[in-house]
Design goal:
Bound molecules: pyridoxal-5'-phosphate
CATH class of the largest domain: Alpha Beta
CATH topology of the largest domain: Aspartate Aminotransferase, domain 2
Order of helices and strands: HEEEHHHEHEHEHEEEHEEEHHHEEHEEH
Largest sheet: 7 strands, mixed
Number of strands: 16
Radius of gyration: 22 Å
CATH superfamily of the largest domain: Type I PLP-dependent aspartate aminotransferase-like (Major domain)
Number of helices: 13
């Protein structure tokens, strides 16, 4: 590799790069990663890190997976990309054919984009225009208070107001926010939803609110909310960008529901973490509302890289791996081991709460500083694990494990032991 100067990569980075979710003024030097293999990534000095957050939740089968790499390489020399209006290709069609029957309920059309936020934007547009096309325009949207649906403006608007949105709050459109459902508030929430008017859709992260702090809630309550929406002609959007592809113990979180949403948003694990790709799927009823001789009823949305064939092939390869028995066994193994670990640290004086859904476990630290995403405690925890070769990025005072399914028991044990040590030392 040619170096343009005798500066280190981290120093060159500092001169030209603006990193995501990072205060660049006092950011620690960014660690140059030169290789990924299985659950590990390696820095330029050969130090090995366990990627316990799946590189922002995208990786499910491990890094540089040879099977996905082979499929992607073949596609690269066959067809790298083609405009997706007026043209189509086998990887996009095959992926839709394979994905739709796997989704809970009856999903019948796939709309491709290239990330989770855009998958959400499309879902919102589908719902708003659906009612408009039917001659019954409805402009309100319902969402959870601590939700996170992405960083573009529509996605930000339906996300909870937080430090992430603070600079833009005055420009975000109004949304009706509700609390997460529980035994105490469920009947009030159902009543509230039944009383809503002019509401086009309810968007939610099923079972776990990820960026909001790995907040978990029960399927039976979500079922009641969806039912209340259905009775009041409110479309439902499951944002499974994070929960999809096995994270919650089932292939999709909504498999754990009786009442199925009208729309799904998928990204992150979709390509096994190899390529950027987003998917919004819908029922045939929604699709049909856009069929018309009136050109204004068209869904005028698309991205340059819509349905990129390389990304679609990566997703097909990732699906092959996901559907193997060994992957399901790994998902069950990780879930079972997390449950044991939970029992071990539950009640520890520094553990305010520990919760688990499937392959995701979250531990909320008891701190005087509270739950701020910006707390020093967070930086201390992050550094502690990094030093010990584990990538765990806390959300404020909440650390969570969300690892690729190929993680071995020995690596899980090492993470558990390091968390236990941190509970004594920090
Ligand atoms: C990450 C995430 C998004 C946004 O996806 P990007 O690809 O980062 O734009 C949307 N919804 C949920 C639930 C997410 O976790």
């Amino acid at each position: 590799m040619s170096s343009i100067s005798n500066l280190s990569l981290a120093e060159r980075d500092k001169k030209v790069i603006w990193h995501p979710y990072t205060q660049m003024k006092d950011a620690l030097p960014h660690i140059p990663i030169v290789k990924g293999e299985g659950v590990y990534v390696f820095d330029e000095n050969g130090k090995r890190y366990i990627d316990a957050v799946s590189s922002w939740w995208v990786n499910i089968h491990g890094h540089s997976h040879p099977y996905i790499a082979k499929k992607v390489t073949e596609q690269l020399t066959t067809l790298e990309h083609v405009i997706f209006a007026g043209f189509t290709h086998e990887p996009a069609v095959l992926l839709a054919e394979r994905l739709l029957p796997l989704l809970p309920g009856k999903q019948e059309r796939v709309f491709y984009t290239d990330n989770g936020s855009t998958a959400v934007e499309v879902a919102l547009k589908m719902c708003l225009q659906y009612w408009d096309n039917l001659g019954n325009p409805k402009t309100k949207i319902l969402a959870f208070k601590n939700a996170y649906h992405g960083d573009t403006f529509g996605a930000m608007s339906v996300s909870g107001r937080s430090i992430f949105t603070d600079a833009f709050n005055s420009l975000l459109f109004d949304v009706e926010f509700i609390e997460l459902p529980n035994e105490e508030n469920i009947s009030d929430l159902v009543k509230y939803i039944s009383s809503l008017q002019n509401t086009s859709c309810f968007i939610f992260e099923p079972l776990i609110l990820g960026s909001g702090g790995m907040l978990m809630y029960e399927a039976k309550y979500l079922d009641q909310l969806i039912l209340a929406c259905q009775k009041n002609d409110i479309l439902t959007i499951a944002d499974e960008v994070m929960t999809g592809f096995g994270r919650t113990g089932t292939y999709f979180a909504c498999e754990q529901l009786h009442h199925k949403p009208d729309i799904f948003c998928l990204s992150k694990g979709l390509t096994g973490g190899t390529m950027p790709l987003g998917v919004t799927t819908c029922t045939v009823d929604i699709f049909n509302a856009f069929l018309s001789d009136d050109k204004l009823k068209t869904l005028y949305h698309g991205h340059s890289f819509t349905a990129n064939p390389i990304a679609c092939v990566a997703a097909l390869a990732s699906l092959d791996l996901l559907l193997e028995n060994t992957t399901l066994e790994n998902i069950q193994r990780i879930s079972a081991r997390h449950a044991l670990f939970l029992k071990q640290i539950e009640g520890h004086k520094k553990v305010k709460s520990v919760r688990q859904t499937g392959t995701i476990i979250a531990i909320e630290w008891n701190t005087e500083q509270g739950t701020s995403y910006l707390s020093n405690h967070r930086n201390q925890l992050y550094a502690y694990f990094l030093e010990r070769g584990i990538i765990l990025r806390p959300l404020g005072n909440i650390i969570y494990i969300l690892a690729p399914y190929v993680i071995k028991d020995t690596d899980l044990d090492y993470i558990y032991d390091t968390i236990k040590a941190a509970l004594e030392e920090i």
